[in-house]
Write a structure and sequence with these properties.
alpha+beta, 6-stranded mixed sheet, 4-stranded antiparallel sheet, 30% helix, elongated
């Protein structure tokens, strides 16, 4: 049976409830809303032309409006949107469990209550109201501050989504992310990756619930949104909120949990690096199996950092989720998130990928000299940086006036001596040494010093994980000379030599190396190791590029450079340069 409840509500709002039988007689029901404007042509600025309302695609006015005055028709057209808040439903087996996508007009109200607080936003959110009603619940009311992610609650009558955090939650809060870019290709890229990773049902990979595209008003770009389960914090906030460690928390079970999270994140990265659409749950094979349409993919995250690792205090997951012991711990679970600059590549291009805008602090040294090319080992370096900061917090975060992670951040500046090729100071985990005719790249000395300090009186687990970080993950790789069949030698790379031949560990090898650590007894995590007094057994590898820093900068400016976020010091320098340029232009204009 057809429903006319929305039609009746609109008619009551505009004082024409007595005409409801006309709509029933001509079968203009709720399912036909919104009605389309007809006969307005191209409106001129400031001119309101009469129009009619009709069913979409019919091209003729709807009969119930035949004797209506234009003022009433216009009021109906405006009020109809107040009844069209969408219902969001999760994907079903009939949809092949794919993420559902909603294309909505900017005029449709969104049934969201925007909750106060920053949630997992990277910036500050300024709530416009405690809730939203009518047309104010549309796109415009969701803008605020510098935030990209909002904490929202969808009206329970308008969705059947699950947060997967707790099986008993009723109408839980969710996280909605608005992409800053209006580039539909970039949106589809991120959704494509997240949809493929959803099929993995891995507890250490963020779960995409649904997507939205808000069709902009005339002359405005469309906006793109992603909706996720709401995390309790990101890893950066996790460290901040738990310093110093609450008394009695750093037990064997807690350190074991850290070990499990490291292994789980390595396995999650394997799923991205070796993405097999038809068999995405295993990490045992180096080469992915092609799907029915022959599309094996190798993914690269490109921006692994604490802000892109989310912490959920509780996580159940959708049906079929891998439920290892690390998900059942009372300490929660960490998930890899934010695939905005990630890329999927076929086999023959996986080591020659170009990336989007990454964060320089956690980027490997090849961003300085290999320009826009990167491979999956890029992520291994970033994960190694995060693991080292995590160990810094774990080992040294029991006391002190300042968080040891912040102290380590300051130490990496090397007293303002750690500078980029251009000369701005930076807090990278590598260090650039400039000579007259060459440029050397090495592990930041602050990294080695931190590891030496943490080894003092450390447990076997701490010793083992620090060795993995320093000798397997934070490796300044030599230039790879072996090429895959069909690959061409890049003609814009400078000549480089290394004092060693070590390469970064692959994510599969890393996962296999970390897995047995969590299975040791409690003494492995808490008792001091007999190896704690050992010094670093070998010096980290150094790479020498046989061009000066200035020559490398010139070469980079002539090619498509790898896009990285500036440090605060670089932003300050660039701001000063822009202001000075503007001042000089104004002086010249007054001459």
């Amino acid at each position: 049976a057809k429903s006319y409840r929305k039609i009746l509500a609109i008619l009551i709002l505009i004082g024409k409830a007595d005409t409801i039988l006309d709509f029933v007689q001509h079968s203009v029901a709720d399912a036909q809303l919104p009605l389309e404007k007809l006969g307005i042509g191209q409106p001129e600025p400031g001119v309101c032309r009469p129009f009619q309302l009709g069913l979409w695609g019919k091209g003729e006015p709807a009969r119930p409006f035949k004797r209506w005055e234009h003022r009433d028709i216009e009021e109906f057209e405006n009020k109809q949107w107040e009844t069209l808040a969408p219902f969001f439903s999760r994907a079903s087996k009939e949809d092949n469990n794919l993420v559902r996508h909603y294309e909505l007009s900017w005029r449709r109200p969104l049934p969201f209550e925007i909750l106060e607080g920053t949630g997992i936003s990277k910036g500050t959110y300024r709530a416009t109201s405690g809730g939203t009603t009518g047309s104010d619940s549309s796109l415009d009311s969701m803008k605020g501050g510098h935030g990209k992610v909002w904490k929202v609650r969808i009206n329970r009558e308008h969705h059947d989504l699950q947060s997967y955090r707790n099986g008993n939650e009723q109408n839980p809060a969710l996280a909605i992310k608005r992409l800053l870019s209006a580039d539909k290709k970039a949106f589809k890229n991120e959704v494509n990756i997240l949809t493929r990773l959803n099929k993995c049902n891995d507890p250490h990979l963020v779960k995409l619930l649904l997507t939205m595209e808000i069709i902009g008003r005339p002359g405005k770009d469309n906006s793109f949104f992603l909706i996720f389960p709401l995390a309790d914090s990101n890893l950066r906030q996790f460290w901040k909120n738990r310093f110093p460690h609450p008394k009695g928390t750093i037990t064997a079970s807690y350190v074991r949990w850290v070990s499990k999270q490291f292994h789980g994140l390595a396995v999650a990265l394997c799923k991205l690096h070796n993405l097999r659409p038809t068999n995405a749950s295993s990490v045992d094979q180096e080469k992915p199996k092609a799907s029915a349409d022959g599309d094996p993919f190798y993914g690269i995250h490109g921006d692994i950092k604490p802000e892109n690792l989310l912490w959920y205090q509780e996580w159940v997951g959708p049906p079929g989720t891998r439920t290892d012991d690390d998900c059942k711990d009372a300490f929660g679970v960490l998930q890899l998130a934010d695939f905005g600059i990630s890329r999927l590549h076929h086999t023959e291009t996986r080591s020659n990928a170009t990336m989007g805008r990454a964060t320089k602090t956690y980027a490997p040294p090849e961003v300085e000299w290999a320009f826009d090319r990167c491979s999956r080992s890029f992520d291994i370096w970033g994960l190694g940086c995060v693991f080292l900061e995590f160990m810094c917090w774990l080992v040294q975060g029991g006391s002190g006036e300042t968080n040891p992670v912040d102290d380590f951040h300051e130490a990496r500046y090397l007293g303002r001596k750690n500078r980029s090729l251009e000369g701005t100071i930076q807090d990278t985990f590598y260090h650039v040494v400039k000579d007259k005719d060459s440029t050397k790249f090495k592990v930041n000395p602050a990294v080695e010093e931190l590891i030496l300090n943490m080894r003092k009186g450390a447990s076997p687990f701490v010793i083992d994980i620090l060795n993995v970080i320093l000798y397997d993950m934070l490796v300044v790789e030599p230039k790879k000379t072996s090429l895959k069949p069909g690959q061409k030698e890049p003609d814009n790379l400078p000549l480089a030599t290394s004092d060693g031949k070590r390469q970064r560990i692959t994510c599969i090898e890393l996962a296999k190396k970390l897995e047995p650590m969590a299975k040791h007894n409690d003494s492995y995590f808490t008792n001091p190791s007999s190896r704690a007094r050992e010094s670093i057994r070998r010096s980290p590898q150094t790479l020498t590029v046989h061009e000066s820093a200035g020559e490398l900068v010139k070469r980079r400016s002539m090619t498509r450079s790898f896009s990285i976020e500036n440090t605060k010091e670089e932003d300050t320098k660039h701001d000063k340069q822009r202001r000075m340029t503007a001042i000089l232009k104004s002086f010249r204009g007054n001459e």
